[in-house]
């Protein structure tokens, strides 16, 4: 993609406005907390300290809107305290330009590296730096700076207290994540009726798994209907796929296929009912027709062998889902494993060493996070110096814009830069026009600022450009309340915002972190994890008694993460102004389909794993070893732009007579392994065609 086209597409995406479900009660609560803090500060300390405290309450409320599974009060407190510390340290050093620049670079670098702990931490840390650039201009003494910092922390405390006292949809984010996972499995069941090999999007299940991790305090308070359903939904997916598959399940035509259609439709209906109940915390409303299908004795007559076992297992799992959604079930385990009460999430104190280890892992050449940290710290320093040199005054608009819009990824940085500029133009123009026309006093300016913040809380999920209109107006009104920034004109603010956005865009162009050159590495990682997953499943067939289901589960999660990482990288690379390097778009799509089919076959074999007392299948061990070796060598070939060779797997599948005293080859295992080899051959063919076109 050319630079011109990339800029055009990112600009368009930055200005998009989406239809999202609004949450007015949460927006009103955030605005009420801000109004309370501003009102108290204005009455007790005056407009200057009120402006500083307002920034703390404003940022604390924004932190609670981030996608995080931690309690919202904790996010508000962390945001308020960290902003208070940043502001105080910044003011103490701001009079010494070189010292403050060193602090700004260090602070911004740490904020950039905090993306290693996740986007929530990165966004909060970056916002703290950008707001610090504004708030350090408000105090006039160290004592005032301490008062500002204290009131900022107080603002975070007020927002946290309001969340505790006036909860809105308690556990709402976790409920939505689990309901989305159940609804995704329900949709998968319906799609299998028309397409027996329909693809499955694992992202909702992965999101629900992240949401299911809780701290010990959360575990004691979590509702019963949020405990266990995710684990059952995970086990439903391979059962549904094995029931519908024409190669390892029922035939493509005939009465068995017709009855499977009915069972899949009934499963989708019941899962949808469970999803609605979980999302809203209501009783489960079951479809009697769907229940009659699943309880029908016709299943025992029509289905035999593996499909019959899959249907029985499906009915059992659906009963578990309904029980849990009604709040009466507690099962969150895989059969054969001990009861696991909950997935553990570290507390804030225990999270510190985890974050430190994540940052150390990213301190390496080629790390996307490290490059982002270097870029954003350099741009913040350059923007601060440039704003100080220009004759506009209040030059913090430039570095504040740059820090706010910069992200580790190209598309988000450029789209947010355009959206920030356009939103600032509108927001600053409207707010400055109101100020110049009405000449509001401190109280009216505070009210206008609270209204702007409330609109931002309400509309922030509809688009970045919309939220920036409200944020820009909020800053203008708030600084006007403090008696500052009156003299700066709309063109001056807009020019400084444009400079900050351009600095961010130029920095990414000079020191980029493109995903396109990494595509082959991402693909190779998926090949390895897919191979290990299939090999782990085969190991269970080879030795059912000594193998743990936890190994299979871990391998599945690993390959799922590798697949999602590949898909995200491919989507990111699609918008980058970089030509493909050895893998075309068509080749990448075909290779993805082949690896998805490989993982699907392994999942079908997992659905029929033998019990611990089952007869071992000796040849499965040889197939597992061949798959491990072949996929590791295949991944190496992908990285080196060679065509992988699957000779070890083909040799392991060659017909051999059973040794004396050994059982004959298992037909189910051989059929599954043959399908695995076919998917690997399709993968090599996709790369070969792509290499020919490149």
Automatic annotation (TrEMBL):
Domain Integral membrane bound transporter residue range list: 384-506
Major localisation: membrane
Transmembrane segments: 31-62, 123-143, 149-168, 373-397, 417-435, 442-459, 465-482, 494-514
The organism's place on the tree of life at top rank: Bacteria
One Pfam family hit: FUSC_2
Membrane topology reported for the UniProt record: Multi-pass membrane protein
Residue spans of biased composition, Basic and acidic residues class: 634-644
Coiled coil: none
Subcellular location: Cell membrane
Keywords: Cell membrane, Membrane, Transmembrane, Transmembrane helix
Segments for region (Disordered): 634-670
Similarity comment: family membership: Belongs to the YccS/YhfK family.
Entry protein name: FUSC family protein
Species this protein is from: Streptomyces glycanivorans
